Amino acid sequence: MADRFGALSGEQRVRLMRRLVEAGRAREIPAAVPPRDASGTVPLSPAQRDLWVYESLYPGTPALNLCCAYHFDAEEGPVEPAHLEAALTLVQNHHDILRTRISGTADDPRVDFPDEGPFVLEREDLRGTGTTIEQAFRAFRRRPFDLGSERLIRGRFVRVDDSRTTLMLSLHHIITDWWSFDVLQTEFAEAYRAVRDGVEPKLSRPVIQYADFASWQGELEAAGVFGARLDFWRRYLAEPPGPLTVPGHGSPEAGEDGIVQIRFRVDAETTRAVRALARERGASVYVVLMTAFAVLAHRVSGARDLVLGTPVANRSAKGLDQVIGYVMNAVPTRWRIADGDSFADVLARFGADFPELMANADLPVGRIVSAAAPERSAGRSPLFQWVFMHLTEQPSVSAVREFAEPERIHTGGEHDLVGVVRDSGDGMDGSFEIRTDLFSPEAVARWADSYLALLGQVTADPSALLHDLDMAPAAERRRLLALAEGPAAPAPESLPDTVARHAARTPDAPAVEADGLRLTYARLADRVDRLAGLLVRHGAGPERTVALALGRGAESVVAALAVQRAGAAYLPLDPDYPAERLRRALDEAAPVLLVTDAAGALPDADVPRLVLDEGAYEGEPVGDVPFAPDRPAYVIHTSGSTGAPKGVVVTHAGIAALTHSLTERLALDAGARVLQLGSPAFDISVAEMCMAFGPGGTLVVPPPGPLAGDALGRVLAERRISCAMVPPSVLASVPDGPYPALRVLAVGAEACPPDLVKRWAVDGRRLHNAYGPTEATVAATLSGPLAADGVAPPLGTPVAGTAVHVLDERLRPVPTGVAGELYLASAGLARGYLGRPAATAERFVADPYGAPGSRLYRTGDLAHRDDDGTLHYLGRTDEQVKLRGLRVEPGEIAAVLTEHASVARAAAVVRTDTTGRPQLTGYAVPAPGHTVDAGGLLAYAATRLPAHMVPADVVELPEIPLTPSGKLDRAALPAPRAATASRAPASAREKELCGLFARVLGVEEVGADDDFFRLGGDSIMAIQLTGQASAAGLVLAPRDVFTLRTPAQLALHARTSAGGGEDAADPGVGRFPLTPVMRWWLDQGGDTWAFTQSMVFPVPSGTAPERVRAAVRGLAERHGALRTRLLAADLQAEVAREVPAGAALVRVEVTADDAPATARRLAARTRLAPEDGEMMRAVWLDAGQDHAGLLLLTLHHLAVDGVSWRVIGPELAAALAAPAEAPRGPAQAAPGTSFHRWAHLLAEESERPEATAELGWWRTALEDAADARIAGGQGAGARRATLTVELPADLTEAALTALPAAYNCGPDAVLLSALASAAVRHRGTGAGLLVHLEGHGRQALSAPADVSRTVGWFTTQYPVLLDAGRPGETPAGEVLKAVKERLRSVPNGGIGWGLLRHLNPRTAAELAELPVPDVRFNYLGRLTAGDAAGGELLDGGPGAVPLGHALEIDALAKDGPDGLLIEATFSYAEGVLAKDEVRELAGRWREALAVLARETREGGPVGATPSDFPLVDLSAEQLALLEGGLDGLDDGDPGDLGALDDRGAPGGFGPGPEGDR
User: Fold this and answer.
1) Do residues 650 and 636 touch, judged by C-beta distance below 8 A?
2) In what residue span(s) does the Carrier domain sit (predicted)?
3) Residues 632, 637, 642, CA angle at the centre, nearest 5°?
4) How confident is the model over 745-762, as pLDDT tens digits?
5) Which pick of 350, 573, 609, 1113 has the fewest CB atoms within 10 Å?
6) Cα→Cα distances 125→763, 788, 1108, Å
7) What is the pLDDT of residue 1300?
8) Rounded to whole angstroms, how far apart are CA atoms 1064 and 1334?
9) What is the average pLDDT value for the chain, to the nearest integer?
10) Mean pLDDT (whole number) for 311-320
11) Distance separating alpha carbons of residues 970 and 963, to the nearest angstrom
12) pLDDT tens digits for range 463-476
């Protein structure tokens, strides 16, 4: 079978395979590579083309170099470089691929194999240079190849020292793969031994070469085999996950530092266990190893849906085993991890998937990626970023080891992480090859340990649940627990005791400084003691709470210390908070006393009040109150996830440790002047007191009120602040300045951007990052001084007395570099939440690593730890967020919004607005009978929430979107309303690039700061953009688009070229697949040479012959369709780069009177041979110097349509009218998308899910339409006869103007409704008419394309079943409404029919079984001489257009003596329809139009239909009721319905603009 298959010609094989595919028998195609046609050109294989695109995006990259080295030792004797060269020459001569040269264009690259002569090695001598062989090999393999200008294999002979030499080889991946290396290595070993020993090598040239494989791949693609494979991959990869990322690790923007291999060894015992498990489960060793790798990826990344790549040899076809070349494929494997999965479950699922994966593994991965349409990001491989392979021991290694030690290196870089496990003796050697711009080698070394640990656990117990598998070996766990511990804590001490200690040592040192007040430590201690005595007398004491409603000021500092000195805990209340929130806090805390500085400033509450005045500090000081570290020190309310704030009860136990850590790490001393920036209601105020009083420094209290921006800058400068703790968003608002006193800053409460570090860590000033929740006494970690290195600042390391663990859901330490949740252990943990034991139990859990009874606080924060113990923040596990440094629980905000009477349900999230700033947005579902008034709702929220928790906007929704698990679906929430539009371009270059963006991306308008990829761009579009920029004179590389992304940035970077260039993505030349209408035409048969159209154009008198020749030649140069050659057997056509000779101008001398008749005669008899590339003939009918002549242009219909003539006419007129002295350079390519590119886009579109989803619509619409024809489907191919009729001016006016206005439709719907009624009456049965409609075919596709100025045959044709109702009973207006609705229901203007019927092999056969119309209708619109710049369309000869139906009607509007007239030509099949029948049908059509016009004038059922209101789901019945209601209005105005239509949809023209021929 394989031999017979190979003996067929390529065309025969393609036809055979296409039939097998269409019959669903693609698996019966022989797995054998046939020899190619040696006379044809050699294309790149699909896989090679993918690498060609990659190389275009990343020119000069060494990532695709595959390298090996052979190390020779003196024991084997001296090595002669000439022997190596001779051996490599033998191998090179046997394998053409090793002599590859790539030429041609980016759209149509070609391959040849010139004779390179003997293989010549480069030479290098390392002796005396200090360079090691490792360094030399690294430099060698990092050298890139230039695909267009050099050989793609290079070798170097290196003399390492007097006894050692090395041979290095580097090959570009486009000519080899790892399997090929085994072939090459085997043959090289044989050839080298033979040359060295002087014997004949036992080698022969393989019968099958890579060029045969590449051609075979092309045949598989042309036959639809690859398309059939895509069905599986589309199902398997439906809705693919995003790129696999490990939280907290780098991004490609960080810059490439290189590739590193982390090596590990699978010991013999584990290897035996892996093989035993494989046998037990009926799987291969690879399947077990791959599953363990997938589990590792899942546990490291946290992803539950991930795609991993795995290479396959792809050499099962006969003849491929000895081929060198890029044959292997990388196959995506999908892994979905569910809760409760065991390793055995995941292994079984992969084992079940594996056979089908392999059955479809020969489809090039680039096609799979395109079909899956995954999320892309610059510098990362799409679809899968992690790859795993298992390599068995290769025989070639043993052959080479007889004389050298081989070393194989993949330069790598196209994937983030590549795992390789190789069989080696009784064990296995493994490596993780990583990009160091993405991962740290130290972290990945720990992952390698985790992989080995996983293998040990799953082979011992395959039924183990995945979440029970421990990622950290025992030794690693001990190390991680040690890294979690902070320094030892000092002895506990309260803040009042700290102040008293300094008062005793340095009584006169300044302690607090505020406007109008300066307190020394002695005076501060005295005021604290006296106020404490007063508080005790008012009931304050241990385990009691005193509320302080004082705001920021010196009094609040004294009061807080006094409450603690009295043994009580203070409850800070911000007087600016809404009264309702303050009332709730007081009710919950039940304080014994409320201290304020102004009576009546707070809500009524049943709490005794104490108003502070000077008398408060004059009483007796407090007596001795014993200090207990576990006694509450303060209660601070944080935002609550349940909808109400939670009171956190914090003890004194952690205060001394916090004070010690801040003082020591920030290097504070008695001279420190610490700013009190925070409100007392936030625990940052506690940290500020610790920083000031700990070293005996001064707490500087600014005036009340918000402090940020310029005002904060003035305070820093004027008050000589030396230390401050500031939220990053507040610090970002402060202007740059010298601030000479400011020596240290601590930022915290939210993530700190790197640019803020760059701004503030200057002139010796230190900037530290602090992290910690209120529940852990302010801070749990603190970083060292941050470096302005552009990297996100770390959280740092634990403060004294605190352990910070990074744990999994089983409370086990995760390896370094892996995300986990932060858990805190410390004596300073809060007691819990006031009055909320359930919430306390949820967050404060038993500590498995501490002393009995100790606790952990579960922060809900995600982080990872570096190998040195430094922690890095990653995000939240719950909804809680920090906004401008303040903690926000969206649940609390949603609860407040829901309390409003107009709101049924609500949600709140932090979104990034169009300027990149975080914005708190509320979403509300209105209660029944209400609407959401955003302004009123926000005003209501402001009375119940702190200012920082009031949303910036509220968006009304019909429902709150939920995920399948019932949680809020944040991704489905609409973005908040944009505040501003994108910036308009400010320069000519920005304007040019904005226009190019819009054209390539297919959007109406692009702003200067719009991101190319956020607007929908991809790598191919980036190539398109740079090509079009080149044509506009701007030099950009595709990589620039990835890195710079916006018109503004690209405008700054772009260089100006000397002239335009060719768009690499759309050169407009080369082969393209025939479009659907072209394939339909081929199916009709007939005389292909007669299929022409002719138009005659005026030539002004006195026009020079050169001007006419230049005008004609310019057309052919600009428009590739006029240089096209038909390749019917391949179902392709080819656009030539050069203008064919047949396009030259022919000059014929005529008289002025004879010119028109001569033109008609020539038009009728001109024939063109498309198979020879003859698409155009031009004849100049020259009437002499003093008379105007005519230019007859005859084009093959394959190259032109009605719109094209409207392009050609003005171009010709402009060229003929140009001044004689005007210089003429080379014609530029037509603007926009070439027809060549369009044809490829149609082929791609036919495979898209959106297109194939239309199949059901077409099937349902047509399956019962066989009886709706007029001639039983006969007539195609018959002899053509014609009948032309005209409609009078009044009926024309009704059809073109009055009726479309009354029914909000286009003239085509009017004419078709009359035709349907006429056909049903003519037929005498049924109620419908099945008709083929034509359209111009230039609809938008999913890929951006501009064919508005492109010449070619774009026409689309699609079937529609029209309903004419019951003849004589159904009003004509109702028929028109039904026809209008049917036309508008056709998906995407009908273009999908041709794609599925003629281009998609999986759908073509099914649609071919449906009834075929025997009537075609085409309304060409209004055609005037001005449309084609004075050109007149002439009749062609007989057979110019094959008859494809029993009846074909072409209608157009033209100027007549009394105004516009509709002319309709009825072409009919002689012998199928009689002339009288056609005349009768035409008369009934005219009569039906007259009836429709009369009914409408007399008040028939005019009005809207459901499609006029696309934003409202209305049925025809509901619309009728609505119209009836409108008619009943007392002041009814016929214009009301039109106004409603303006809100719904503008008047339409059926499914799309008029068609053409």
Assistant:
1) yes
2) 984-1058
3) 125
4) 999 888 788 888 999 999
5) 609
6) 49, 43, 68
7) 84
8) 33
9) 85
10) 87
11) 9
12) 999 999 988 888 88
Contact in structure between 814 and 247 (CB atoms under 8 Å): no
Q: Which two tokens stand for residue 1261?
A: 């619409």
pLDDT band for position 1428 (50/70/90)?
A: low
Question: Are the C-beta atoms of residues 655 and 589 closer than 8 Å to each other?
Answer: no
- Give residues with Cβ within 8 angstroms of 25, minimum separation 6: none
Look at residues 160, 123, 178, 141 and name the one whose alpha carbon lies nearest to residue 67.
141
pTM beyond 0.85: the answer is no
Q: Of 22-31, 539-548, 909-918, 1125-1134, give the range with the top mean pLDDT.
A: 539-548
The two structure tokens encoding residue 1505: 């239909």
- Considering the domain delimited by 1070-1230, tell me its CATH architecture: 2-Layer Sandwich (3.30)
Work out the average pLDDT over 57-70. Answer: 83
- pLDDT for 1055 equals 75
| Domain definitions of the chain by residue range | 1-30, 42-215, 889-970, 988-1056, 1070-1230, 1240-1423+1442-1544
Pick the CATH number of 988-1056 from 1.10.1200.10, 3.30.1300.10, 3.40.640.10, 1.10.3720.10: 1.10.1200.10
The residue type found at 439 is: F
Provide DSSP, 443-487.
HHHHHHHHHHHHHHHHHH-TTSBGGGS-SS-HHHHHHHHHHHB-P
Name the strands in the sheet holding 42-43, side by side, starting at the edge strand that comes first in the sequence.
42-43, 109-112, 101-104
Q: How many CA atoms lie within 13 A of 367 on its CB side?
A: 26
Give bridge partners of residue 1415 from the DSSP assignment. Answer: 1447
Neighbours of 12 (CB within 10 A): 12
Task: Name which of 1371, 1428, 1129 is nearest 14 in CA terms.
Answer: 1129
Q: How far apart are CA 1149 and CA 1160, in angstroms?
A: 15
Q: CA-to-CA distance for 14 and 284, rounded, in angstroms?
A: 36
User: Comparing C-alpha atoms, which of 1149, 1099, 1194 is closest to residue 1430?
Assistant: 1099
Q: For 880, phi and psi rounded to 5 degrees?
A: -60, 135
1274: number of Cβ within 10 Å:
16
Is the pLDDT at 1227 greater than 60, yes or no? no
At a CB cut-off of 8 Å and minimum separation 6, what does 375 contact? 240, 242, 243, 382
The dihedrals phi and psi of 609, each to the nearest 5 degrees, come to -115, 150
Phi-psi region of 833 (alpha: psi -120 to 50; beta: other; left: phi over 0): beta
For the record, the structure tokens of 442 come out as 């130290």
Q: At 8, which amino acid appears?
A: L
Amino acid at the residue 1277: G
Contact between residue 382 and residue 374 where contact means Cβ atoms under 8 Å apart: yes
CA angle, corner 810, sides to 805 and 815, nearest 5? 50
DSSP states of 924-954: EEEPTT----HHHHHHHHHTTS-GGGS-SEE
Helix, strand or coil, per DSSP, at residue 1316? helix
Please compute the mean of the pLDDT values over residues 1388-1408 and round it to a whole number: 91
Architecture of domain 1240-1423+1442-1544: 2-Layer Sandwich (3.30)
3-state class (DSSP) for residue 877:
coil
Read off the pLDDT band of 308 (50, 70, 90): very high
pLDDT of 176 higher than 90: yes
Cα separation, 431 vs 388, whole angstroms: 10
Fold classification of 42-215 is Chloramphenicol Acetyltransferase (3.30.559)
Domains 889-970 and 1240-1423+1442-1544 share a fold: no
Say what the pLDDT of residue 397 is: 77
889-970 CATH: 3.30.300.30
- Tokens representing 1217? 């009218």
CA distance 1216 to 1202: 21
